[in-house]
Amino acid sequence: MSTRAPAPQAASVPSPPATDLRAADPRAAASAEVASDPSDKVAPTFAAFRDVPRTGVIFVTTEATRRGFSPSAADWCNLGQGMPEAEALPGAPPRISELPIRPGDQEYAPVAGLWELREAIASLYNQLFRRGLPSQYSAENVAISGGGRTALTRVAAAMGHINLGHFLPDYTAYEELLDVFRLFSPIPILLEGERGYAFSAADLRREILGRGLSAVLASNPSNPTGKVIGGEELAQWVAVGRELDCALIFDEFYSHYIWRPDLAAQGGISTAARYVEDVDRDPVVILDGLTKNWRYPGWRVTWTVAPKKVIEAVSSAGSFLDGGGSRPLQRKAIELLTPDATMAETKAIAAEFGKKRQRMLNGLRDLGFTVDLPPEGTFYVWASAQHLPASISDGMSFFRAALDRKVIAVPGDFFDVDPGKRRGGRKSRFRRHLRFSFGPPMAKLETALTRLSEMISETSA
Ligand SMILES: Cc1ncc(COP(=O)(O)O)c(C=O)c1O
Fold first, then answer.
1. What is the pTM of this model?
2. Which atom of ligand 1 is nearest to the CA of 254?
3. What are the distances in angstroms from CA 29 to CA 39, 56, 393, 418, 441?
4. Which of 164, 219, 304, 392 is the most interior residue, by most CB within 10 Å?
5. Claim to verify: residue 314 and residue 223 sit in the same structural domain
6. Atom of ligand 1 at shortest range from CA of 219
């Protein structure tokens, strides 16, 4: 599509004209560049549809594809996509490679998911994180959905006319997600690299009270910064949410990638589920799935763990949004979700990804990158190019130069999420940053670091 149809606006949400956005936002300028590609000139336009912005990963993958990248191109190093290596790892349970489809599997699964899987997930949380606590999760506290973004979309569609706090920077998909329903008002909360992206329970209390928040959404561990709110601090967050009746929506998709030694000592998994007092009263909503923590992103099996009332609401939202997940995959997933299999997978991740984290962190620092916070969780390093030669000292220029060396990373601007594009033309605080994934195997990381080193030494200051 080469023209942008005006998006319908809620009366209370003023938005600058689309043309201004293009001029001000490097990402919009990048998409304008795509639109001026001669091959797009003949593309039909449709008055009914808007140009739906591409998320950061889609943007970088599209740009890379224009230069010859494909997922099967062995000579590319894709440190852009947030995908963990999905092959066997030493010590991990064998990878599942066969899937029976039974006669009943030809039917719809329930929108809230297969009961047996919901039970297995409730039991996993109780056994790993809630032993001895009086309030225990049941299947009614769990809803299954077909992917993390589907789960997030259900939660967003189930919220009322409230103020929802979200952090800057955070996961790129939140930008559209927090705008598309126009049901609630997204309120950005700044995190600062100089403070190591820290945000205490006292900070949370101040924001909830000062801005009238009824919900807060956070990836924890954070994509992209790798910051983890964990241990006693997470317990205090949960207590603040409970006391002020503010829903805490924790996106825990990276909760088994934990590098902070005190949190790793808890068993390698950091989750708010440890600190919930009453599973049906505490306003804690947890999102997780097979995507990263079990390294099966292609299965699209994910879950929401929350008070029963919230599960009813998100399941109702699922009944008009997506209709539920895949039956055979949900049934098979039960095998992966025993405490033993889960802990074996988590230990294997800690061993293998721990080495990759160290290599990536050292490698990027040797190249001249500045790292505000060595990642406490996730498989990303969030690094600033500010001290590199001037022509590659911002995220977008570095990204483009690296593409010429067949290395993909994600420029920092994309994580400065701006739902509804209401922020005007100011430059992003994160325009110097990039996110590098250490999801791919070690050999790929080595190749990428070598190529980037050559690129930097051949770039004049
Ligand atoms: C923070 C975070 N949450 C959720 C997801 C979504 O996962 P899925 O690929 O299952 O939609 C991702 C994926 O990149 C993520 O980074």
1. 0.92
2. 1
3. 18, 14, 19, 16, 33
4. 304
5. yes
6. 1
